[in-house]
Amino acid sequence: MRSSVSYMLSHSTVDTIMSKPDYEQNAHHHGSVLVLVRGIGPSKPRFLQKVFERLQKVNNVKINDSSGQVRDIWVRFVQDHPVENNDWGDFQTHRRLLGLLTVGKFESQVELNELCRVHESLKVKYTDTLFDSRCFLFFGKRSKKSVDAGNNLITEMNDIEHSSLSSHGSSNKENNSISSDNSTNDGSDRRSLDHEINKKLDEEFTTPSNFKSQAFFYLDNDPCDNLESSIAEFIHSLFWILESKRLERTREKIEKVSLLYAPFEKKDFVGLDLDTRNNRKRCMGRATKNLADLTLQCGLVSESLTLYHTSCETLRAIGDSLWLGAAYEGLCSASSILLYPNVRYATSLQRNASLQGSPQKITDRPLNQDNIAKAALSKKSGLVIQLESDTLVKSSSSSSTSSVSSILSSSSSGSTLSDKKDTPTSPYPPNVLLPDDIPLKYRDAIINYSKYRHAGIIETEAALKAARICIEQNQNLEVAIFLQNVLYINLNMSEPERVQRFETLTELYQRIGYHRKASFCQRLAAWRHVAQSNTNPDWAQSYQLMLESFPGHHLSTDPIEVLDQAAGWPCLQIDLLQQLIGAARRLGQSALATRHMTFLLQTMWKHLTPNEQREMALQLQSLSAQCEGSPVPLVLDNGTVIPPANLTDLPYCIHFQVQNLPSHLQPHKIAVNKVDCGPFLFTPIHFSSIDRRVKKNDSKIAFQWVQNDLCEILLKLLNPLPFELRVSDMRLLTNGVVFESLPETVVLPTTTPTSITLHGTPIEHGSLEVQGYSTHTLGVKSNCRLKAMSNRKFPPNYTIDVIPALPKIVIATSLPQTATFSSLANSDYVIVSASVTIFNGETSECTITLTNNSNVTIEFIEESLHSTVDSKLQSRIFQWSREELQSKLPILPQRSIDFKVTIYGEADFLGPLSNGIGAVGSSEFSNHNAGSHLPEFHSLSVGTLSVSGQNSLPSRMSSPVNIQRRSELTSSFRSTHSGHSSLATISLGGAGSSTTRHMDVQFRFRYSGGEAFKEGYCRMCAVSFNLEFLPSAQVTNWDVLPAEIPSQFYLVLDVVNLTAQEMSLNYTTNKNILVESKESCRVPVPVERCPLERLLQENTQTSDPQNSLLSGGTDVDVTERACSEHISDQVNLKWTLTGTETCGVTSLRGISLSPTMLGLITVAPLQWDIFVDDHPVPPQSEVKCSAGTSIKFGVNICNLSPSPLENLTLTMQFYQDYQNGVLNYKLETRVLLSGPDRISIESLNRNTTVSHECAALFLTPGRYKADIQCCSRTNQSTVFWHGATNKLSDSDAQVWKYIPSIDITVME
Amino acid sequence: MLLLVSFTTTRMAVCIAIIAKDNSPQYIAALDFEKELELQYRVHSALDVVDEKCAPGLKPSQDSRDLYLGLLYSTESHKIYGYITNTKIKFIIVIDSNSLLRENEVRSANLNHMSPEPEIK
Q: A569 contacts in B (CB within 8 Å)?
């Protein structure tokens, strides 16, 4: 009831509430003496800070009281204390400011006076509560006198100072508390010096008369050795006054104490009867509580506990909620001081740290992990304690959650707790609160406070104190509940105070590892800073707080980290980032705004809706218009570094490919390593090493780039934005050798992938790493590194070898270019083309000009010819001088050389016309033709062709007699088309030489120079020749006839002019014939017979097995080849096209010859001399005689062959030719022979002659023929060309005939 | 989704959230779209308490089989309750402080509606 009345009353009263909450308060501060430390006058903060730190180290003094008991007196130093808070000094005595320390610096008497004045005015300000004060005055500038007096001293002292300061710096909490008795035992000499100087200062400067405080003078760099002792002395003085107050209170008669009020209560009791029993009890209760406070401050903790308990009883009985709450709080404080003594040490250290006011204080706080570690530690040690000491009161045994710092302290020496534990008696007074009870009591206190609107600050502070104790107890949930409660308390606070409250909450939440909560509080604080109700919005603070709340949202300032983690709530992260951008904009930090916006787009892209993506992209564009974003870290004023944010996925790179150089610029090794190619395309056996099977390292590029050559990288980019995206200044990011990247600008359409190529030139040679590319889009410069591009299979970088510069050549030819390039393989080497049209057999010239287009001298050049045809044929078509080319080296930069290439219209001039022009070729052979044309491009299928040749031959040779007969029938030629192509090895473009044929040839150059040449690199390029062969003169049929002279024969040819012009054909020396276009003519060409030596030569050449294998292995081929070559050497059909300059030669290369022809062509091994009636008979001549007369035939045979002939049989036989294919050998009734018609010759040596004679008598007139032949029956005959006839006879006989047979006309 | 409908129609919950094992949001629905962000902040910070309550070994006394986490924390305007499945999927309900819903009712709501794992889109 009472409380509700007071609540109602307090509602209406004027505001006397405490307006400045002290969020830093801790439970043990209840037992501390409050001292204000204040810098006065104009002093540097750093200087003051240093002094303050020195002062505040003395926060604990042990004093022997009058009864000899040691009092542990603690001091709480504050730098600011609102006077109004003193008003609550009756309610809780620790809120009273008891001492004042001022620190000032002066240079002159005037300044000194001012300092003294300020000190005095401060004293006045806190006069109600102040017990004592000290003033520390530092003399800043040395006066002349002191320089004269103690110059040396000062320098000495400076040295000493350093050492002394460092020793002070290293002092830890153990020697923080300087006991009063060890104050004056060391450094007495130095001290005397100090005193001397200080005395001098004292003498020089005098404090004004109204200055009633004790002042200490120091030089600026004074080590201030007596500082600590003077502070201790000061605390002594405070203690004694406080002790006297306490004693005073204890001596008061408990019945007569006056009522103590909380500030807002005074009005409540106006007009109330104070003499009631109830009120007396209230007076007693409150006085007891007050005494308990004093007792606690004076270091008598257990006594205070008893007093608190008493006051609780009293106050509870009368329902004085406010004071009951205070009593509960006191109880908690006293208990926690006993249970957790180390909190004092810990916080005193922490306070020191926080005094530096660094903005990173939050990051200094122990993180969640630390807490967990601590918790684990505490649990462990808690168990140990339980096991060790059964004597411990049930309080500690029941507390599974013992204090963190107490446990820590128990391991460290010298703590009061451990001291007490050693004693067998109970370490704590029996009335101490159990650890679990402390939060409960705090809760009671808070509930009691909450009944009073004006006690809001007290309530808040109590909640925070409770939370801090719970942190000690590791009861995080309790902490959360207490902290949450803080927010409920409805306080009429200014915005900065609200902010401060949130910051305090943040800190505490962070201490228990509630980072989300902490960051939420930070966000609230940030909002408060810039809330509309805030008259003085502080965007900088707001910005800072938001930045600090990043970890709680699982954010980092580094986008790569955020993308890797992918944690947190995107929705909140986006909101936070947007607010942050807003704050940065308000601050005018456009660079930061751009950076954060870039960060937002980069990290949160996938969490944004397409519309948001668009909006944000546009926002970024407008932000970056003020300040362009670039990939450099930004450093905030407080030293925080904001790492660069790159828009790696805007545009989104789908494809990244390092391109090889164009084929003709690619470097090749001059010496090609032998590739181990087995007979199998695939082999499971890996010869070289096992790492062939190892996953391929796709970051290493297989090909090389060349120094100073423009290189390319192909990108495929996607613009995910719904509007056109302009990406400018795209360059490659490289590492390693110097690389000059060419900027590229593209405008990317929406959602369609666009391919672009980035170019650059390596300036040096060596290893080049391509890491990605840089862009400039939406006003932001980004370095898009491959390793930052997730979800794509990019290696972190590509490594390319750059080889030294290679020369470049430009090729020109004297021939016109073609529209189409070569269809051959490797046509990408071709850099220039040339086309030429020539007639078969014509010769043309081409000049190739090579120009060195680079700055590297070409020292090496190598040319080669590539086509689909055989290299032999190739070499017949193209001819050039390699020596000429090599002699022109080197080619200096920008110089050129040229050389000539002769092109000959090589063709197979033999054979029928496929298109019917002069279709002389009989159908019999066209089949073979078709057969031979089948393997068009791969002509050298010797096997098939030789087979066809053999097929054709027997058909002609089946009857030797027949041949003999047909030789007279000149209407039909014995030429064959089937076999020749195997010899000619030509098959260009299908249908022989009678149609237009095309041929693609690449003239390749490999060239090199400079350093790259030394390293064995070269380049390859090619000229593509497109040859067109027009048909010219074609030999469709041919035959061989005996000539008038035995050493010669006639080659009769059917020559067709396939050109469109009239052709003049020169077929033998000074014999010309004009052939009309598309007309055929028959020309006889006298040819020398093929000498036997040539045959011999040919035979030995082909005697090695490989050649004979190729040639079909038969001797007939050998002979035919020899004869064919002989003919083609001897016969050159020169032609000129009338009306043009065009001339050419039709070659009979590869002419195929039947065995009969061969007989005529070759010089026979036997030389025949025929005599009739002792007169030699010329060939082709006719012998005339009359019937009945005897004619004497004489035959001389001479062996012309190099080896002897053996077992010869010379035969002479007469027959009649009926000219209808019937030969009549049965002439017994018509011819009579005298003498043997055959003789046997055992052996005929070289150049020996055998003669035979016989006589014939013709009985009837008519036309007769004499068949004279010689046959050899030996197997061992070494005659080389026996193959021509051995098929005809049953055995191995060789037959040589005298050709032509002798005609004998017998007349009547 | 049935759950949401039942809660929103009876005006009991202002927001429900389903949160995955790794504390990433799977589903969040708020009654008032305007307040969704604010509520998300609250739900997000409630996860600290969830983590605390589920931290292994810290609270052996608490029945670990009890999947209902109870009141996570309350603000002036809202009360936040949690429920966790065996697979560490969390269900968070935000209830208006002024609503007359009692804790027992929330608990039963949790148990009745959440025990069979709802289908997560």
A: 24-25, 40, 44
